Amino acid sequence: KNNGYDAWLRYDKVKDDGLASQYREWTAEIVASEAAVEGPVASAIKELQLALPRLIGQTPKLVEEKAASKRFLAIGTLNSFSYVEEAVQGPIAALNDDEGYLLKTITAADCSYLVVTGKTERAVLYGVFHLLRLMAQGESIQSLQLAEQPKYRLRMINHWDNMDGSIERGYAGRSIFYRNNELLVDSPRIVDYARLMASIGINGIAINNVNVHRAETFLITDKLLPQVAQFAAIFRSYGIKLFLSVNYAATIELGEVDTADPLDPRVQEWWKQKAEQIYSVIPDFGGFVVKADSENRPGPFTYNRDHADGANMLGEALKPYGGLVLWRCFVYDCHQDWRDRSTDRARAAYDHFKPLDGRFLDNVILQIKNGPMDFQVREPVSPLFGAMPNTNAVMEFQITQEYTGQQRHVCFLIPQWKEVLEFDTKVKGDGSTVKEIAAGSIHPYAHSGITAVTNVGDDDNWTGHHLAQANLYGYGRLLWNPELSSEQIAEEWVRITFPDSDAVQQLLVKFLLESWSIYESYTSPLGVGWMVTPHYHYGPDIDGYEYSKWGTYHFADHKGIGVNRTVASGTGYTSQYEPEHAARYESLETCPDELLLFFHHVPYTHVLHSGKTVIQHIYDTHFAGVERVEYWIERWKELAGEVDEQRFAHISGRLQEQLENSKEWRDIVNTYFFRKSGIADEKGRTIY
Ligand code: GCW
């Protein structure tokens, strides 16, 4: 149990006797007429049957019609009840969403009951998970009146899993879906994974890497589709649609058509038949995720066609079935000459896609990374997001900690994502936040939402670091309700995951909330990014990418550092923002400190708004970052005995590794800039 496998679905025994007996009273009998039919309601009942014995040591009695007890739980879609309708219809009607649910205590003449209901089975499942979350946190369920619906329609997860079992940028073991080019259809983990995902409201999962290599190209063929369909069936019973990443050049790769030209009728016909074939085995198939003309993947450019041509060809094929195309905008020149100062990778997505606005079909959605570069610890928000009013969009986050410590370091990413969501793009005046754009409330998108690259693998605890589970949990919760604060999300997660100790809960919340800023402080400074070991992206290598083809440079010399992205004298990237932001980033006076080196090349002696010089800021933050890691390790040690030994030891071990690695970062970054600049640390600390 303490290997972390249950994650936030532990359902540890409720300690408070009063609450436990309250829960027992309300859940002794469960009325659920839909329990027998396979589907999300049945899954919800199963979850209750698993959870309640653990939480309160009582197995609920299932009944089909109205219960005999004076208090009971009633679970089902609105239509499944004959007797509760009036009391719930009003609040349910007020939910404009078929995923919204109601938890309501109803007092009738002869009994009181708690009803969990919604318009669809999926809504009921979400409602039951909410109820269980309340119990796991020790909240009273006596008089509930709770109606909730998700902010985002698409709440997706992307896996970068390969069929050989490896995971691109995976830091938690091997794939839970594949091994040796076979699908693990009998693995019990798949159901548990679906439970975890449904419990945080995820409704779409793409099960393979966006880099679709040869083996995965076959996922859409007779050979493998029946097995993919088995995964889809498990997902379906948890309200989740399965998506696949597809190889843009599948026609060629599979040897069926000798071109992948999107305007060639043979290619179009091939994909239409492919769609028909997929939907014949997976009737609720979600659609395709596509990485095309990106990092050496094939795409329409080969045929002098553009992204709209490519995406629409697939969109046409999926349209009759309601399928979606998630077309990624991570398109840039990955064969850049580092000597060429005019090409700016940050500009690429906007330059490629913005001119295509209005040309994409209704079931095509552009998938845009949160920053213009690549999931760095700090980046400005992508100027492409919101810039195409006539094109559906989803925001792409990265839960897997590729550039944020690879699940060896603690880096709670919810605060980062919240900053992105709260960013007011101004595309339609004040209030045009990313949060609202992704919800489709600024531009009238047909489809929108949020997706993210997940951090799970087959490690016992799914995420490598126990504390990295908080990112996965928080991701789902944030998508359901982005008004939740980072603190609320962290608190919720610790209370469910470490229910035994207040001291542990208090410490972990504080640590999690500070962890992103700690990681930022000892890694690359002031938004400049990178400085990581090439390819692996763990640990420092200041010049690792400096003379490479990847377009990721810091341009440090003996006088200064940073990338000049101004219109006045740099790459002109700032002009991709709305005028207010463009002006703010363009000017040294108004550019925020944390992004200074993303937008400007400045001397080491440049004085920040904080009052420090750039070089002193680098030294100070790097020393401070390591000190904070040391501080939290000391605090954590004080909790010995408060946490089960297994998790205590695991977390202690990872913290030690974080400390060692943060010292490498500190000393290498500080030494590098000391040697480059020749400027001594004001405080005379050790620099090598
Ligand atoms: O962040 C980069 C990663 C690649 C990844 C790519 C992408 C799947 O280093 O591993 O490839 O982004 O998002 O396509």
UniProtKB/TrEMBL annotation:
<dbReference type="Pfam" id="PF07477">
    <property type="entry name" value="Glyco_hydro_67C"/>
</dbReference>
<dbReference type="Pfam" id="PF03648">
    <property type="entry name" value="Glyco_hydro_67N"/>
</dbReference>
<comment type="subunit">
    <text>Homodimer.</text>
</comment>
<dbReference type="GO" id="GO:0033939">
    <property type="term" value="F:xylan alpha-1,2-glucuronosidase activity"/>
</dbReference>
<comment type="similarity">
    <text>Belongs to the glycosyl hydrolase 67 family.</text>
</comment>
<feature type="active site" description="Proton acceptor">
    <location>
        <position position="402"/>
    </location>
</feature>
<keyword id="KW-0326">Glycosidase</keyword>
<feature type="domain" description="Alpha glucuronidase N-terminal">
    <location>
        <begin position="7"/>
        <end position="131"/>
    </location>
</feature>
<dbReference type="InterPro" id="IPR017853">
    <property type="entry name" value="GH"/>
</dbReference>
<feature type="domain" description="Glycosyl hydrolase family 67 catalytic">
    <location>
        <begin position="135"/>
        <end position="462"/>
    </location>
</feature>
<protein>
    <recommendedName>
        <fullName>Xylan alpha-1,2-glucuronidase</fullName>
        <ecNumber>3.2.1.131</ecNumber>
    </recommendedName>
</protein>
<dbReference type="Pfam" id="PF07488">
    <property type="entry name" value="Glyco_hydro_67M"/>
</dbReference>
<dbReference type="GO" id="GO:0005576">
    <property type="term" value="C:extracellular region"/>
</dbReference>
<dbReference type="GO" id="GO:2000886">
    <property type="term" value="P:glucuronoxylan catabolic process"/>
</dbReference>
<dbReference type="InterPro" id="IPR037054">
    <property type="entry name" value="A-glucoronidase_C_sf"/>
</dbReference>
<dbReference type="InterPro" id="IPR011099">
    <property type="entry name" value="Glyco_hydro_67_C"/>
</dbReference>
<keyword id="KW-0119">Carbohydrate metabolism</keyword>
<feature type="domain" description="Glycosyl hydrolase family 67 C-terminal">
    <location>
        <begin position="463"/>
        <end position="685"/>
    </location>
</feature>
<dbReference type="GO" id="GO:0046559">
    <property type="term" value="F:alpha-glucuronidase activity"/>
</dbReference>
<keyword id="KW-0858">Xylan degradation</keyword>
<dbReference type="InterPro" id="IPR011100">
    <property type="entry name" value="Glyco_hydro_67_cat"/>
</dbReference>
<feature type="active site" description="Proton acceptor">
    <location>
        <position position="374"/>
    </location>
</feature>
<dbReference type="InterPro" id="IPR029018">
    <property type="entry name" value="Hex-like_dom2"/>
</dbReference>
<keyword id="KW-0624">Polysaccharide degradation</keyword>
<dbReference type="InterPro" id="IPR011395">
    <property type="entry name" value="Glyco_hydro_67_aGlcAse"/>
</dbReference>
<keyword id="KW-0378">Hydrolase</keyword>
<feature type="active site" description="Proton donor">
    <location>
        <position position="295"/>
    </location>
</feature>
<dbReference type="InterPro" id="IPR005154">
    <property type="entry name" value="Glyco_hydro_67_aGlcAse_N"/>
</dbReference>
